Amino acid sequence: MNFSDETVNRPDGRSKRWADHRERRREELVDAVIEAIRELGPEPGIDAVAAHAGVSKPVLYRYFTDKSGVWDAVARRAATAVVEVVAPAVAAVREEREVVRAAVDAYLGFIDSDPRLYRFVVHQRGIARDRDVVGEAIDAVASVLARIIGDRLRSLGLDSGPALPWAYGAVGYVQTVGDWWLRHQQPISREALADYVTTFLWGGITGVRAAADTPGGLAATW
Q: Where do the domains of the chain lie, and which CATH numbers do they carry?
């Protein structure tokens, strides 16, 4: 019997259906694990998580290989959620200062709405990961802020080189402040904190004009 190349190379429909089913099942299990973390707290044992999710530990490992695979899948989901919250908030405004405030407020809103998941992702230690998913989320948010800061520097005729390190510094600052805010049971309102953080960050951005008059400062060189 002869087969055309098209027939031979055609994907097995059953294999694709199984792969699709497996991916759906993985997503369902990630949902269940996240709900378990929300109920049990940010430092749950894998046995307790599996029981809360209504499955056995071997079932979890069938889809995620081991404990680190389960934790990594949850971290990826949470990191993606952070970017999905911050990016639209930033895109919705045009004023430079309001862009910074929107990013700060969106981040604070996310950790406020899901504090146990946030603590789980940020403070998990001793788990080997194939990817630094927290770092990837930081990269995504910092790149947006770097564009804003770089545009501001160029509009002032200054060197935009500091934009990226300043953006990473800003993201680290907001993350640290947010962590303090949660650990101390939100001693001030989210709105007030967003205003304080934005004022501090924006003061630094607008203050770069003075550097243009400083010998060896930030004056553009192109």
A: 13-64 (1.10.10), 68-213 (1.10.357.10)
